[in-house]
From TrEMBL, chain A:
<dbReference type="Pfam" id="PF13581">
    <property type="entry name" value="HATPase_c_2"/>
</dbReference>
<keyword id="KW-0418">Kinase</keyword>
<dbReference type="InterPro" id="IPR036890">
    <property type="entry name" value="HATPase_C_sf"/>
</dbReference>
<dbReference type="InterPro" id="IPR025847">
    <property type="entry name" value="MEDS_domain"/>
</dbReference>
<feature type="domain" description="MEDS">
    <location>
        <begin position="7"/>
        <end position="149"/>
    </location>
</feature>
<dbReference type="InterPro" id="IPR047718">
    <property type="entry name" value="RsbA-like_anti_sig"/>
</dbReference>
<keyword id="KW-0723">Serine/threonine-protein kinase</keyword>
<dbReference type="InterPro" id="IPR003594">
    <property type="entry name" value="HATPase_dom"/>
</dbReference>
<keyword id="KW-0808">Transferase</keyword>
Automatic annotation (TrEMBL), chain B:
<dbReference type="InterPro" id="IPR025847">
    <property type="entry name" value="MEDS_domain"/>
</dbReference>
<dbReference type="Pfam" id="PF14417">
    <property type="entry name" value="MEDS"/>
</dbReference>
<feature type="domain" description="MEDS">
    <location>
        <begin position="18"/>
        <end position="170"/>
    </location>
</feature>
<protein>
    <recommendedName>
        <fullName>MEDS domain-containing protein</fullName>
    </recommendedName>
</protein>
């Protein structure tokens, strides 16, 4: 197998099938002196420790590693750099991407599964994204099949995936229930200062200080980018309820041209670093493009 | 913590308060001058009224409720020490410190000056020197009985130019500068207000003018008064610290700043979160 990222998907329907896929994947790596990084929940990690002949040769990063797509990409990049600096020739990774079937939210991970084909291409990485076929929705299955160039067969063989396409998936972004109600604040052409004041006013009673600060930063950055890179008129709309605040910053332009916007620190493009930093914080970020314009949606607090 | 903030009046800054005021309307500045002088007279301070042009005395007389005796009137050229066209920052600070000593010896409680400094800050070279003066004199003002309201005329300087100097005051007028740099306690300087894309260039210019004045290389920056600072400002601060061979710890209650600095892996700047000021 050549250098570069080999992005592999696999499906299982039981612990036994999961074991049949993951154990050879891991043990081939450890036997070859490769680094192996696993990001599963406590139950699966415990099972893996009993199944693997050398569990201490594996790095267990836990499910928290899959916090948000942008953070996960950044965390994995740091891990790759760390292992490569220690002379490792290849890194194998596997973990549970969040989706509604395993108690998470798949929103944003569709972009992740597509993006890592590009953003990890410089690293000698073999990744196995193993999904429980009994728990994933048809949409998740569709995304997984479209974004992985390789498939791990039940027999443990890595094969080309005929359904793979390089096309960027159209993210499915569920509406927040608050968005069907009148916004608490609706400003046209806000300056970044006005955007910060508006978020402060609407969110301070409802959010802890750290989340409030994250949301203020995200709104300020979005308002700045809307003015500099978007097309007027711009607006900020804010909804709030105890424990949750939703912010829309909208302009009438077409949004970032780079499909990796927010997932990578695109420092060559003005505004790219701020959007990436926004994605690193403890707020939910969605980029929404419609025929009428581009919206950055920021949500702080409990999303359920 | 030294008092600071955005004020819409020069009244009430007692016993002292270093105020930067960018103005378009001379009457607005003179109204602030009147407020500032009246407070100074009530505090028993020696008052100076400083500017350029031939109408200074007439303007002073026109201020209702302001005594016309026991107030010094001077031109900018007389009030500061100059080296060619630019102020000599250190010599000008020394001159003002001597003026404080003279005033106190004469029975006054300190010195309070109303200065239209526009004539000393028209060119980039003048502003670079005057920014250093503002930074150094504010350090004296944080401990000596002296303060000034410094006016800058937006009819003769553009907004960026006035902001470069107004930002070096603990008190500013609305809309004149989003952020403020001033002396406060044991820190190298205090940083308050907001720092975003709109003012990061002025922030960097100001840092390049003032950071070399610090003898220490491990600086403490008191950012408890910071309401907001973005990644651009953190990166510029980090870069200018590197240019002058210094490192700094910025203490701030702006929680996102510490998190941004961690993600950005800054080389010369560490951000410590502290409780709200």
């Amino acid at each position: 197998m050549t250098a570069g990222h080999h992005h592999t998907a696999g499906f299982y329907a039981s612990d036994a099938e999961f074991r049949a896929l993951i154990v050879p994947f891991v043990e081939e790596g450890t036997a070859a002196g490769e680094a192996v990084v696993l990001g599963y929940d406590e139950r699966k990690s415990a099972l893996l420790r009993t199944w693997l002949s050398e569990p201490d040769a594996v790095v267990f990063v836990g499910p928290g590693h899959y916090s948000t797509p942008a953070r996960t990409i950044a965390d994995y990049r740091r891990l790759f750099e760390h292992h490569l600096a220690r002379g490792v020739t290849r890194i194998r990774i596997a973990g549970d991407v969040p989706h509604e079937g395993n108690g998470g939210r798949f929103a944003g991970w569709d972009r992740y599964e597509w993006a890592v084909n590009t953003v990890w291409s410089a690293y000698p990485v073999l990744s196995a994204c193993l999904y429980d076929a009994t728990l994933i929705s048809p949409y998740v299955r569709e995304v997984v099949e479209r974004t992985h160039p390789l498939l791990l067969s039940p027999a443990g063989v890595i094969e080309a995936n005929a359904r793979y396409t390089q096309a960027h998936p159209t993210p499915v972004i569920a509406a927040d229930p608050l968005e069907s109600t009148p916004p608490l604040i609706d400003l046209t052409n806000p300056s970044p200062v006005q955007a910060r004041r508006a978020v402060e006013q609407a969110a301070r009673p409802h959010l802890p200080a750290q989340i409030l600060d994250d949301l203020v930063f995200g709104a300020s950055e979005a308002a700045t980018n809307a003015i500099i890179h978007g097309r007027p008129p711009t607006s900020i709309r804010i909804w709030s309820t105890p424990g949750r605040v939703v912010v829309h910053v909208t302009d009438t332009g077409s949004g970032p041209r780079n499909p990796l916007a927010g997932l990578m620190p695109v420092v060559k493009e003005a505004g790219g670093l701020g959007l990436w930093l926004t994605h690193q914080l403890d707020i939910d970020v969605a980029l929404i493009t419609t025929p009428h314009g581009f919206t950055i949606r920021l949500r702080g607090g409990k999303l359920d | 913590m030294r008092a600071h903030g955005v004020v819409d009046s020069a009244a009430g800054l007692r016993p002292f308060g270093h105020l930067g005021w960018a103005y378009r309307d001379r009457a607005d500045f003179l109204a602030r001058a009147r407020e500032y002088i009246i407070d100074g007279v009530a505090e028993g301070q020696w008052i100076e009224f400083v500017g350029d042009g031939d109408t200074l005395r007439d303007e002073l007389v026109s201020l209702s409720g302001v005594p016309t005796s026991d107030i010094g009137v001077a031109t900018v050229a007389e009030f500061y020490e100059f080296a060619g066209d630019v102020v000599d920052p250190v010599a000008s600070v020394d001159k003002q410190v001597r003026a404080v000593e003279t005033a106190v010896d004469a029975g006054y409680t300190g010195v309070r000056a109303v200065v239209d400094a526009t004539a000393a800050a028209l060119t980039p070279e003048q502003r670079a020197a005057f920014a250093r003066f503002e930074y150094l004199i504010d350090q004296k003002m944080s401990s000596l009985p002296i303060s000034t309201v410094c006016g800058y005329d937006l009819g003769r300087m553009d907004k960026t130019a006035t902001t470069e100097l107004v930002c070096l005051h603990p008190f500013t007028n609305p809309g004149s500068s989003l952020f403020r740099i001033y002396a406060d306690g044991p820190s190298e300087f205090a940083l308050s207000g907001e720092l975003d894309a709109s003012c990061v260039a002025v922030f960097a210019t100001t840092l390049r003018r003032t950071l070399p004045l610090s003898a220490a290389r491990d600086l403490r920056i008191d950012g408890r008064g910071l309401v907001f600072i973005d990644h651009r400002a953190l990166a510029r601060l980090d870069a200018v610290l590197g240019e002058v061979g210094a490192t700094a710890v910025l203490s701030t209650s702006c929680l996102v700043a510490a998190r941004l600095s961690d993600i950005m892996t800054l080389r010369n700047l560490r951000v410590d979160p502290v409780g709200e000021a």
